[in-house]
Amino acid sequence: LCEILDSSRIIMSAVKEVMDLGDSDNMKDICKAMSSGSLRGARGNSGVILSQLIRGFGKVARGEAELDVPILANAFDRAAETAYKAVMKPKEGTILTVARAASNKSRQLADEGVTDLETYFSQIVEAAREALASTPDLLPVLKQAGVVDSGGQGLLCVLSGAYDAYMGKEIDYAALFGQEEAAAEEEAEEEVPAYI
């Protein structure tokens, strides 16, 4: 859960930087803001790795007016490469494994001539999900604990969120956090006294 929240903090920091650009639709400015915002929001190893994934992705995307499958495949490749290079001793069974699986699937789809972005994104998310499920087989400490890598889970959340945004999916926060938790948060907000 902490890595998922960390991933959310990183993305929110990146989005804030982009929003600070105002109405700019300049890809170079957007990629630079995403990169700097994600690094500022990063905490812990996986957080820094996620910021490096965003940085690497932006190095390719920043020179483009529109993103299609071949460009996205190059961006995914560069993202994984940048993240692996940022780690002194890369270890499989981590967020890096999930990033590499997404990159490999992206490249495969581009090489196969896939052009439909819905198909493209859904298959990348599925490849990341499968890679995440395999992390305990690659890292014994995860297997002993009976868990998957939390940084990889955070990356899967980011990729799933990007896919959902592309599809125009609206987020039901009550379902996301649970009906009771959402109701409790609303009540708590109402009970907070206002001070001038």
Explain this structure.
The chain has 196 residues and is mainly alpha-helical. The protein contains ten helices and no strands. The longest helix is centred in the middle third of the chain and has 22 residues.
Shape: globular
Terminal Cα span: 35 Å
Strand content is under 5%
* Topology order in helix (H) and strand (E) letters: HHHHHHHHHH
Main pleated-sheet profile: none
**Sheet/helix structural class:** mainly alpha
Low-confidence stretches: 180-184, 187-196
The tally of beta strands, per DSSP, is 0
Give the overall average pLDDT: 84
Q: Portion of residues in helices?
A: over 70%
Count the DSSP helices: 10
Characteristic terms for this protein:
196 residues; disordered C terminus; globular; 10 helices
Any chance you could write out the topology, listing elements then pairs?
Blueprint: H1 2-19, H2 27-41, H3 44-61, H4 69-86, H5 95-111, H6 117-138, H7 140-145, H8 150-166, H9 173-177, H10 179-191
Helix pairs in contact: 1-2, 1-3, 1-8, 2-3, 3-4, 3-8, 4-5, 5-6, 5-8, 6-8
Describe the structure concisely for a colleague.
With 196 residues, the chain is mainly α.
